[in-house]
Amino acid sequence: MPATASDGSPDVGRINDFDDARKEDRGMTETVGGSSKKTATRNGAGDKRLAVQRVYTTEGVHPYDEVTWERRDVVMTNWRDGSINFEQRGVEFPDFWSVNATNIVTSKYFRGAVGTPQREHSLRQLIDRVVKTYTEAGVKHGYFSTDQDAAVFEHELTWMLLHQVFSFNSPVWFNVGTSSPQQVSACFILAVDDTMESILNWYREEGLIFKGGSGAGLNLSRIRSSKELLSSGGTASGPVSFMRGADASAGTIKSGGATRRAAKMVVLDVDHPDVEEFIETKAREEDKVRALRDAGFDMDLGGRDIVSVQYQNANNSIRVSDEFMHSYENGGRFGLRARQTGEVIEQIDAKGLFRKLAKAAWECADPGIQYDGTINDWHTTPESGRITASNPCSEYMHLDNSSCNLASLNLMKFLQDDGQFNADLFAKSVELVITAMEISISFADFPTEPIAETTRKFRQLGIGYANLGALLMATGHAYDSEGGRALAAAITSLMQAVAYKRSAELAGIVGPYEGYARNAEAHQRVIRKHAAANDLIRTYHANDVAVHKVATRAWQEGIQVGAKNGWRNAQASVLAPTGTIGLMMDCDTTGIEPDLALVKFKKLVGGGSMQIVNQTVPRALKSLGYQDEQVEAIVEFIGEHGHVVDAPGLKLEHYEVFDCAMGDRSIAPMGHVRMMAAVQPFISGAISKTVNMPETATVEEVEEIYYQGWKLGLKALAIYRDNCKVGQPLSAGKSAKSSSETKTETVVEYRPVRKRLPKKRPSQTVSFTVGGAEGYLHAGSYPDDGLGEIFVKLGKQGSTLAGVMDAFSMSISVGLQYGIPLEFYVSKFQNLRFEPAGMTDDPDVRIATSVLDYLFRRLALDYLPFEKRSQLGIFTADERTAQVNENYGSGDVDLEGLRTSVDSTPKAAVEEKKKPQDIQVGSSTELLELHLGTTADAPLCMTCGTKMRPAGSCYLCEGCGSTSGCS
């Protein structure tokens, strides 16, 4: 175990004698001499090797022999039409692996043609193919002390993968141990210069990376703007023009690989003269989408006409400098600079440009923002170049023409039955995983030689984790709470400390990374910044206190070893989306994300599916002190309603523990930002996460989120406002309509014709009282008895209220005459809450939450047929009375009390609605929609048709494991 004093605090004397402490460590330690398998070492590191001791495994017992294996049939169908997408029968998996994880691994990661002897059919084959390659490379390149150490390493890695403790990123499973190039990296950063040769090479390199199933990002700021001249005297095209060609290329290749669609990031510096054009590019294209949709074209995501829209295959980001942000704060002007000379060619208002950035993001979710000052302040190798770009999901940020291989740990695997997070076991696991990741660079292949050269020279790694949201809930922490952020920060700090400590130990074995000597001072400065941030963590509970103590000790030891050996890796960690690999590990939540919802979709052995309450919920309730009977009742309530509001026996102060990313109690946007800020100081790269905002969010709120991201020290931030994009899938009900119905609706909705009332028309006037406020409703009808106009008298003549009601009445009347259905208005205005509200003098509507609530309920009762009112939950007093008598007889029933219930619904009307369990769903997102009656902004999977769910800044399909980005 790491050195501690008897009271559990760091023992300074033993920390100073680090070599002795390290030898006593039960995990992987380095030894000097005694190697039975000596090979040449690099950079004059000497003949040290890595001695590996067991953590998970038992000597003499193979990990495969400790589990029960079973045969399963994997048959994956398109949820929409039932067609079979993939079929492989008789695959072998441990009995504790879920059906979903089995399906994902079999369809995505097994190699060989289906139906041939070469096709992999067992998880053993997959793990052996990868782990044995890593072990052989470790032996070949001189990492291990003895053959026995290599064997222990192989068994430990196998056990962790078998038990879903961690997973490598997808390219490892695709490529390692096969005849394909041994590409292990998921994230790439390219470079482009201001020459046509470089621009065309950019297209080529991106295509090669997309073909391999990975994503790439780059910064276009070196390309001259459209406001500058070429050497020939003509005007330059500008980067936005060249983006068009790259976008078309990505759109062509997006389905070319067998793994995922193309993913790319395009970055532009805020001082580029074309920055305004870049900011508005995708927003203008969204206007085009709306116009084409209104003209009747198929502009839904995946529609046949959406391909005519440009710039949709990339995430766009603006790289803002601290200078610009200070100008924004002070209301000053900011200079846009020529690319070749650096001279200021235009002065702009910083606040105005920042508002345009926020407005564009509000309209279409692009561009995101990257904070250049923060990024490069935490840069370990500034002498070798600045960090100018990121990968598509914004978690990997380092030098141009470089790559990063990722691996993520499943945090729930370290939560003990007593509710304590096992920090020591987590540290041992990080040591093992980071060692394997480092070994992989020794044998990896790369798509281009510049990327290969940079990656081998700086050896960037990206260890991270998944299931943070589930861990916080299981330990009784609200995601948006000080305690939740403290635990997340402590765990992330521990991961980073141990990763860099192990990197320093590896540097003593095989030497530091090649670029270290030139950047030693800067690298050490960043390490000290991480350690200083660890000292600032404020702890609240036993869990974060214990984890923080282990992290502090790891930082102290790691700094000592690094000062002596240097570090083997220029960076160690990122927080990736963990999309497909999150499903492989059976994680409830991905990356740094909170839980999506409290109910989820689960596949069953033999086919079929069911909805369940997340298993994290009962564990959280027990950690909060609830008894088994209370837990059972609360879980049953959540299963029926999809939320915890009014759950029997649940204390109000515990509601926040069960807040999710979506739903009735969704986490506020700043809650996501604060969590990112808590863990960012302990991440070498950045965090893949999109901050979801409600549809009602304003441009000013988006602007504030982007500003706070800079103030809180984030490296990158992106937002998504619900329903801001037109190209979203229709819900099941809408998509089921025939093409003829769609055309009819299009004519009515987008080419309306006003049908005026005749001079003489029937009408009625209703006097009403709502909460003591008196008024009159006058309704005029067409001769065929359809409502055509309303006039509302409320307030004294000439008052502001009377004028507003007159204007409101005219707008509703004109809308009715243009064909807007009355039931649409009723659905929008009923249940609106504002004063005056309360009791009314109408026997059919006894209580109203506002005047508008009463008016539209009254109109519905007078002008809508029973069938439509049933769907809206609006009934007359006689209808409610008749239904009560039918169901309960004329016994002692409080009929008057039932009449006063605004939302009381006859049983017949309820039975007309489908029960949740009677409606087929294909994903957790669709299940959430079923409970909440809303449509989530997520695309349909291009492979199986299931609605995807958010995963970091990407989307993930729970049906087949496809992602829209890197994992």
UniProtKB/TrEMBL annotation:
Gene name for this UniProt entry: nrdJ
Gene Ontology MF, one: ribonucleoside-diphosphate reductase activity, thioredoxin disulfide as acceptor
Residue numbers spanned by region Disordered: 1-46
Membrane-spanning intervals of the chain: none
Domain Ribonucleotide reductase large subunit C-terminal: 185-720
Gene Ontology annotations of biological process type: DNA biosynthetic process
Keyword line: Cobalamin, Cobalt, Disulfide bond, DNA synthesis, Nucleotide-binding, Oxidoreductase
Protein name (database record): Vitamin B12-dependent ribonucleotide reductase
Biased composition (Basic and acidic residues): 14-28
Residue stretches making up the Ribonucleotide reductase class II vitamin B12-dependent N-terminal domain: 74-164
Reactions listed under catalytic activity: a 2'-deoxyribonucleoside 5'-diphosphate + [thioredoxin]-disulfide + H2O = a ribonucleoside 5'-diphosphate + [thioredoxin]-dithiol
Enzyme class label: oxidoreductase
Gene3D superfamilies with a match to the protein in the record: 3.20.70.20
UniProt keyword Nucleotide-binding present: yes
Enzyme Commission code: 1.17.4.1
TSCPD domain sequence ranges: 758-862
Pfam family, one: Ribonuc_red_2_N
NCBIfam families: NrdJ_Z, PRK06556.1
Family assignment from sequence similarity: Belongs to the ribonucleoside diphosphate reductase class-2 family.
Domain of life according to the entry: Bacteria
Presence of the UniProt keyword Transmembrane helix in the record: no
Names of the cofactor(s): adenosylcob(III)alamin
Biased amino acid composition, Polar residues: 32-42
